[in-house]
């Protein structure tokens, strides 16, 4: 049962790990080589302890989402980016396991179709931003337009470079309109990617996830890492910060993303509407 907005019944929540552990500080250069993808900074303990902490955070997240939905004033947008097999799908599945799907909008962005290509790069993105009361999840995003587009040379630098500024303006306007934008890069190592891609090829139940193009992109790993670093550096802002989460260990990744989301929602602190019009009404 949800607690009311105030009063003795509302227990003080357990303190959260600091999200500064993962945040890319605005104005600072992001350096992915300095972040060990297999590390577990600030984890509450070993795998079992961390999974227990995650279960508690899931309950907290579900209650916060319920308030967000009831309040219907603000929204949250989680942008998930990663190299292929970085764990975006698994993160969505695990982290939102206890959350009411009625309050969520998940959008996956694939290679743009002809209609999308006939518009500016933010056109398809803006249509999918979360309405008031919702948590929106972007499985890939407008960042592909400064990552894949840059690395695969789908557009010239004259086209993609100004996009950092355009993205900052866009996210600023979302934030002004009441959307908290949280951006997470799931950071895996090249070895971990190799292992996960091989598993996709070998396991018939995972083959559907594999594209031959993943191998082409893998050859471009250093270029992608550089493009990620530039994107993180240019677009981590106060109103739409980036977080780099070491993601080789899935149990750690889930806990870190949950911590970031709960922190974001607790800062928003959505409230149940008071509804004074119902005072004294009897059924
Ligand atoms: P995922 O890898 O996210 O599970 P897919 O295997 O369907 O999903 O891959 C989606 C592909 O779409 C990725 O290779 C990604 O780089 C590509 N993509 C997404 N947005 C764009 C874009 N704006 N321009 C070019 N490619 C894009």
DSSP strand tally: 5
Q: Report the oligomer.
A: single chain
Structural class: alpha/beta
Q: Let me know the CATH homologous superfamily.
A: P-loop containing nucleotide triphosphate hydrolases
Which architecture would the CATH scheme give at its second level? 3-Layer(aba) Sandwich
Notes on the protein architecture:
The protein is α/β, with parallel strands linked by helices and 283 residues long. The protein has one domain (19-270): 3-Layer(aba) Sandwich (Rossmann fold), CATH 3.40.50.300. The protein is built from 11 helices and 5 strands, in the order H-E-H-E-H-H-E-H-H-H-E-H-H-H-E-H. The protein has helices at residues 47-71, 88-95, 114-117, 123-126, 148-151, 157-160, 163-176, 190-202, 213-219, 221-235, 250-268; strands spanning 75-82, 104-108, 135-139, 179-187, 242-246. It has a 5-stranded parallel sheet with strand order 2-3-1-4-5, with helices on both faces. Helix 1 (47-71) packs parallel to helix 11 (250-268) and helix 2 crosses helix 11. The longest helix has 25 residues, at 47-71. The two termini are 22 Å apart. The model has no long low-confidence stretch (mean pLDDT 96). It binds adenosine-5'-diphosphate. Adenosine-5'-diphosphate binds next to helix 5.
Keywords:
alpha/beta; Rossmann fold; 5-stranded parallel beta sheet; 41% helix; binds adenosine-5'-diphosphate; 283 residues
Summarize the structure in short.
The chain is α/β, with parallel strands linked by helices and 283 residues long.
